[in-house]
Amino acid sequence: MYYATPLTSLSGFALVISQVPGATLIEGSPTYDGPIIPGITGKLGNAAITTNNPLGVSYTATLPDSPTTGVRGFVKATTNSNGTGVAIQVSLSGFPDASLGPFLYHIHDQPVPADGNCTATLGHLDPFIRGEIPPCDPTQPETCQVGDLSGKHGNITVSVFNAAYIDLYVSTEFGFGSFLGNRSINIHTSNTTRLTCANFVLSSGSPSNTTNSTVSPTSPTPAVFTGAGITTFVSMGAIAAGLIALFL
Ligand SMILES: *[C@@H]1O[C@H](CO)[C@@H](O)[C@H](O)[C@H]1NC(C)=O
Ligand SMILES: *[C@@H]1O[C@H](CO)[C@@H](O)[C@H](O)[C@H]1NC(C)=O
Ligand SMILES: *[C@@H]1O[C@H](CO)[C@@H](O)[C@H](O)[C@H]1NC(C)=O
Ligand SMILES: *[C@@H]1O[C@H](CO)[C@@H](O)[C@H](O)[C@H]1NC(C)=O
Ligand SMILES: *[C@@H]1O[C@H](CO)[C@@H](O)[C@H](O)[C@H]1NC(C)=O
Ligand SMILES: *[C@@H]1O[C@H](CO)[C@@H](O)[C@H](O)[C@H]1NC(C)=O
Ligand SMILES: *[C@@H]1O[C@H](CO)[C@@H](O)[C@H](O)[C@H]1NC(C)=O
Ligand SMILES: [Cu+2]
């Protein structure tokens, strides 16, 4: 399995962005209108397939009865039966007018605070520091952000959405950068507005915690809040950080 190492510089990531002409910003979130760049990958390489995840362990993110959105349901992540990758079950309903879609959903880096502020979950789970640009190519999921579930497995285009698939890149093993159990799900409109969010919590099994800080240098500082977009992001290049995820 992959052990992320703390970064000391963001320069490599800024370089990735600078390779992408035509990037524009909508309200702090980058969009991309140029050609797909083949082979683009994270600063730390392609996402690694996770193996030896703890069997029988599930984490479930259940959306709250928020008054501000009708979207309800859950995303459940269960270690795949052979320990490689994680089985994802998505059961969501109550999506608003289709004109706001397709809807997107991602694992975000940070948990939702007690006040329910989805913005505080920062950006996507992105331990390989791949960034938003160019968009995920689902035929090369290893090159996508680990947390970009809709990018890898499909957008939500119906008002009641059920899906089940294996994602080989997320992990249920504590100590890995791709671990999802202490993070959150965010549901977005197509323009990246956050509709609702929820934390993963252990819902079955015994969590694995055999890794320790000596062998697992994967406790990066929280993702930098980059909501002001690329311009700000580049200007923040001097900031040392572990995980970076743009704000979507
Ligand atoms: C996204 O859509 C929502 C809902 O229509 C709207 O309130 C918001 O201003 C839009 N944001 C952008 C950046 O277009
Ligand atoms: C485990 O199952 C997944 C699909 O569910 C498959 O992609 C993977 O190759 C399998 N791994 C092993 C070691 O059998
Ligand atoms: C939500 O969190 C973001 C990021 O931490 C922060 O900038 C914003 O002020 C918070 N909003 C509220 C209403 O607390
Ligand atoms: C979640 O756990 C991973 C793996 O142990 C760790 O690297 C990360 O910092 C943790 N994230 C939060 C928000 O606690
Ligand atoms: C998913 O939705 C996003 C946002 O509208 C869009 O950019 C992307 O192309 C869509 N992906 C697919 C495969 O349709
Ligand atoms: C693993 O152990 C660390 C350190 O004691 C603790 O912070 C963390 O919550 C534990 N994780 C799990 C999944 O039990
Ligand atoms: C942590 O990992 C190191 C290296 O594998 C090992 O020597 C040490 O005993 C472990 N500590 C604990 C508390 O498991
Ligand atoms: Cu998101």
TrEMBL record:
Name of this chain's protein: Superoxide dismutase copper/zinc binding domain-containing protein
Record has Oxidoreductase as a keyword: no
Native organism taxonomy: Eukaryota, Fungi, Dikarya, Ascomycota, Pezizomycotina
Gene3D superfamilies the record matches: Superoxide dismutase, copper/zinc binding domain
Residues that span the membrane, as ranges: 223-247
Keywords linked to the UniProt accession: Membrane, Transmembrane, Transmembrane helix
Organism: Stereocaulon virgatum
Superkingdom as given in the UniProt entry: Eukaryota
